[in-house]
Amino acid sequence: MCTVCGCAEGNVKIEGEHGHSHDHQGQGHSHGHEHDHDHHHPHPRPAGSKVIHKTVHRYQHQGDVHHHYHFHVASVEQAQQLMADPTQHSQPHSQPHSHPHSHLDAHQHEHAHQPEHQSAPAESATLDFDALLAEEFEPEEYDGELDYGQGPAHAHAPGMSQQKMVQVEMDILGANDALADANRARFDNDCLLVLNLVSSPGSGKTTLLTTTVDELKEDYSLAVIEGDQETANDAERIRATGVPAVQVNTGKGCHLDAAMVGRAADQLDLEEAGILFIENVGNLVCPAEFDLGEDHKIAILSVTEGEDKPLKYPDMFAASDVMLITKTDLLPYVEFDVEACIANARQVNPEIEVFQLSSTTGEGMEEWLAWVAKQVPVCA
Amino acid sequence: MHEISLAEGILAIIERQRREGDFGCVKSVQLEIGQLAGVEVEALLFGMKAVFRDTVADGAEIELISVGGQAFCFDCESQVPLAKRGEACPGCGGYRLHVNDGDQMRVKSLEVE
């Protein structure tokens, strides 16, 4: 399986590669692990946008009966308040309720849910939950008892191994983002401008791209990475202009990822001070989430689509720096409100730059080409 | 569609943790998903169920910690909650919003055995 993409092994094909490179980067697999005990422990969660799901567990052993007080809290302060006075709180699952139960057989309760920190290097630009949780992992002392508030306390079965919490704090797309950063460093080093073209299928990406590279190929060193689920048709269209192109077939995959782009770039002879165009798989949803190491995402929207597309697929237009409204030569024949379209795009992304053009008539191409030329890095 | 990829990413993180730490199987996974993360939670849960099968995380309970969207509004110069991209500032109705929280997708912690 490739690094982050769900496409099945062997599905991705990159033109020019010999054999299928399948690198697990030293990662082992674990398969075939079964366990037959159920561990369902549902708890209602207090409403609120930011929920720290904590179970505060208090216990007292008095002979063979013990009481559990547990409640859910939305904040650390509240937890401390509640621990100070467990009779006062107003959350769902509220009143401290006791579960007296007697044990006829002798057994041990392992109540200390001492968490073990295995902090992976986490660069979090978001809230610092680390500190919050680390602080909370310290046991609270009251009535002469220690309380390890963190972690669901539900390993009651005698002889069962103790459970522990492993702090991970890693971005789900971290693997892709790391590869994208590596791509970006490499492209910077090669003094390349990298543009990632995204749109729905049939918006005219490839036509626009062939026209664009035709205009720029005299002045710049160019290369193209073409992403499609199947066929090398698009790469052939680009190669017909004399510009080197490599096709990536994602198979069942719905987007290009950074690993694919890195491998495809290996197949291209990228010269310095040039432009690398990446034409993503036609899809206005998934490619928004996957950084490829590009300088800019360019969203393409043709006038045969709807002017409300930026509102329907806001993530893509929020992630893009430029919107190209294409096929403007068809405006007399379609109901498409250009001004409303631009207003919609600015609603999700106030900074987005907009160009209107027609690859067929060449109208508006000049402004777009001038923008591209302005982005090409100047390197010593 | 890309939720399967995300589920794969989650599994990769779990397997990496397992190589670094000493544990048998994963009982539950705590995920932090922002309201503006562009992920369909139902599809992600379905994807994780499929992807985790016959792995160390098979049958693990999934706990979702949802983080509300936050943005800075350049029109009224204030920090405001934002439920969806493309919505107006709840304070002044402007659209010059810069999202600054609630777009994350993270594996926060694992409960292991």
Automatic annotation (TrEMBL), chain A:
Residues 194-355 form the CobW/HypB/UreG nucleotide-binding domain. It comes from the Bacteria. Residues 16-49, 83-123, 141-161 are annotated as: Disordered. Keywords: GTP-binding, Hydrolase, Metal-binding, Nickel, Nucleotide-binding, Zinc. CDD domains: HypB. The keyword ATP-binding does not apply. Pfam families: cobW. Residues 16-39, 102-116 have a biased composition (Basic and acidic residues). Belongs to the SIMIBI class G3E GTPase family. HypB/HupM subfamily. NCBIfam families: hypB, PRK10463.1. This is Hydrogenase maturation factor HypB. It comes from Ferrimonas pelagia.
Automatic annotation (TrEMBL), chain B:
The keyword Metal-binding applies. It comes from Ferrimonas pelagia. Belongs to the HypA/HybF family. Involved in the maturation of [NiFe] hydrogenases. Required for nickel insertion into the metal center of the hydrogenase. Keywords: Metal-binding, Nickel, Zinc. Zn(2+) binds at residues 73, 76, 89, 92. HAMAP family: HypA_HybF. This is Hydrogenase maturation factor HypA. The keyword Cell wall biogenesis/degradation does not apply. Ni(2+) binds at residue 2. It holds the Pfam family HypA.
